[in-house]
Structure prediction request, 410 residues.
Amino acid sequence: MKFSEDLAKRELIKDKTFEDASWLDKPRKFYLGIDASTDSLTIGNLAVILLAKRFIDAGWKAVLLAGGATSLVGDPGGKDEERLLADKAVVAANIKEVKAQIEKLLTGAPHELVNNLDWLDSLRYLDFLRDVGKHYPMSELLQRDFVATRLSDHGAGISYAEFSYSLLQGYDFWHLYKAMGVELQIGASDQWGNMISGVPLVRKKEGKEVHAMCMPLVVNQLTGKKFGKSEEGAVWLDPARTSPTQFYQFWINVDDASVGDYLKIYTFLSIEEIQKTMEYHVSSPEERKAQMLLAREVTELVHGKEETHTAKVVTDVLTGKTPITSVGEGVLAQVRKEIPADKIKKNAPLIDVLVSSGLASSKTEARRLVAEGAIQVNGQRVTDENQVLTETSLLKRGKAFKDSALIELK
Prediction:
């Protein structure tokens, strides 16, 4: 299958400046801009990083651009309000952390990493106005979606700094074309207004055609909202922010309507394998085979096989598939990181343990929860308020992982 056909089947081409997608089948050099406003990528960023890897695997040469300069200004794309200006030292530290994540994701995929601070930091303002600003009609800039939204009656307004952001991005493309021969910029659709800034600039300055292509913004099909948010916030690639187990569980819990799309975007499984998986999933959705495959593939990409295995075992414990009494200290240590843990004396009353573990606010509430059948001990529903605990136990109130507690004997 041709590269352009694979991208099309995965629905990874939304907007493009070239007419025929087969233009992508001749490998050239592309670049992808990486925001440095935080010290970790999210699964939203992951989607476009994996798009870059697909290009590399198809023979394209890759340039990853860290926004050391543009992150100091703030990207207005997709934002309803002005960003707070970041400190230079913070942005530099963010780049260091994000670079490590990118290197891990692109292991075995050749690429160059550059920082636009290296050429924008010394740029003279008058030169910028003459060489770049002169080529951007105000009427065109005012029609950009993010500008129009911010300047509308209900918008928060936009500063000159953020208004100028797309010109800086256009300059980046011009610089990378001249210095490195870059002919394509890729990104997500929320960046499209900025991405198309470089195409006309290169044409006007160099008389050459370069192009831009964006993939659709990944959304939750049930809610229509931008993908990658859980009840606790963003899903990060940094294991200190989102543990591998939490990461794995996020993918396990994606909805049936979206799982097929996520398999196309976030895995390197063939289209044929994805189709077979989805055919089985449609016939037996209760088995959640598609979600389990998705969780395994993406967690392995980000955290590796060993962490994925541990995340699966811990998840099986938390969901009751694997008895807590059958696992070793290594798994118990991970469980303690995911849910509250408490040590008690043997034969401690269940009602007291529910309170001490935080699953109930008082003995009165604990008795009510037991009477309503809302409490499980090692997967078994408890109705006797006089029950005592005689072994290491997993207590659950309801279905959510966060409403669980690990109880160990002293």
